[in-house]
Write a sequence for this structure.
């Protein structure tokens, strides 16, 4: 039976010191008295005596029930196991405002949607990731268009973005959007759906998820950049295109290396993630599948679908259907991540107990099917 309750010590033993922590910020966002962060991991500030803690309840790596979350968020269960639940056609889109596109990583869709929500008063804050000194991402509470554009662009390193939701709550914001990777989205959904702890998560009105294969460990990335003849301080932008990891420096220099050579920089916890497409967001956005300068957009919830359609109708974005070949590219990468990381998940998972049966997870289907 899946364990669904625990405390800070359980979180440390099962997640933090077990290589599973994705550094999403869900555990510490609403428990800052006890949890801080050092070296991209939660750290206990003082002993907590709670038998059942919100930190354990909110962590996306302690337990997560995908089909239950599907039902709770979307009112239905997925029929596409690679990309998750979604509605209608998968789109490719871009912002119509060149100023937005110039600042953005690809099509500027996320920035355009957030700016629209802020300008119409539908949200009063958007929690995004913004690079600080030496490219280290940090949660940022954006409250105006200029803030959104200043934070635009992919970071490729991990940020405890859910901490920004806690900051927004403390600042008194009532209608909040969160932009995050799949792990951030899963953590925030657990906060919203928690039956044991109410932190006022209904104030988070929209989750925009970013397609993600993995993120890089900051220390390892810094070392790799030095091997490539540059430094983290010189970075203007990162990108991944056609099998290459691309570094653009502040002096205009472009450095390319095969993405396979970046494997050694990947955070350990990313090896246990099965979610490429930010499956539990209201709307998911990424570059894979789309042409340069455009973004792939997956509409999931009614709120996400309505927002994108209104943005298109208002001329904020332009959109068209992704072709079958382009969708196949998205599906192939989602499949690759699930397939490859399932191997790591099996290695980490203990045998499953079902009544009197004790079976290794990878053998369960074979055992029950009789093959």
């Amino acid at each position: 039976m899946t364990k669904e309750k625990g405390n800070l010590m359980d979180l440390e033993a099962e997640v933090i010191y077990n290589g599973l922590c994705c550094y999403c910020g869900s555990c510490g966002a609403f428990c800052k008295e006890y949890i801080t962060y050092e070296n991209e991991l939660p750290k206990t500030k003082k002993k907590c005596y709670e038998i059942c803690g919100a930190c354990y309840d909110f962590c996306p790596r302690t337990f997560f029930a995908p089909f239950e979350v599907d039902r709770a968020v979307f009112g239905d269960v997925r029929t596409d196991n690679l990309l998750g639940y979604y509605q209608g056609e998968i789109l490719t889109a871009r912002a119509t405002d060149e100023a937005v596109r110039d600042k953005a990583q690809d099509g500027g869709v996320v920035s355009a949607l957030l700016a629209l929500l802020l300008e119409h008063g539908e949200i009063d804050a958007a929690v995004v990731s913004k690079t600080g000194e030496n490219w280290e991402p940090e949660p940022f509470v954006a409250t105006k268009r200029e803030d959104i554009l200043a934070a635009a662009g992919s970071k490729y390193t991990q940020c405890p973005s859910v901490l920004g939701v806690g900051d927004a709550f403390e600042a008194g914001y009532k209608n909040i959007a969160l932009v995050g990777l799949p792990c951030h989205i899963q953590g925030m959904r657990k906060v919203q759906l928690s039956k044991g702890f109410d932190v006022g998560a209904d104030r988070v009105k929209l989750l925009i998820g970013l397609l993600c294969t993995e993120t890089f460990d900051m220390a390892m990335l810094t070392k790799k950049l030095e091997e490539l003849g540059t430094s983290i301080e010189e970075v203007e932008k990162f990108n991944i295109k056609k099998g290459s990891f691309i570094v653009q420096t502040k002096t205009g220099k472009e450095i390319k290396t095969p993405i396979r050579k970046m494997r050694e920089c990947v955070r350990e916890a990313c090896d246990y993630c099965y979610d490429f497409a930010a499956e539990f967001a209201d709307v998911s956005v990424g570059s894979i599948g789309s042409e340069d300068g455009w973004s792939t957009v997956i509409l999931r919830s009614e709120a996400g679908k309505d927002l994108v359609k209104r943005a298109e109708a208002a001329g904020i974005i332009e959109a068209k259907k992704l072709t079958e070949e382009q969708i196949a590219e998205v599906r192939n990468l989602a499949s690759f991540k699930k397939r490859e990381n399932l191997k790591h998940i099996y290695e980490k998972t203990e045998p499953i107990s079902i009544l009197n049966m004790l079976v290794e997870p990878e053998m369960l289907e074979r055992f029950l099917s009789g093959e």
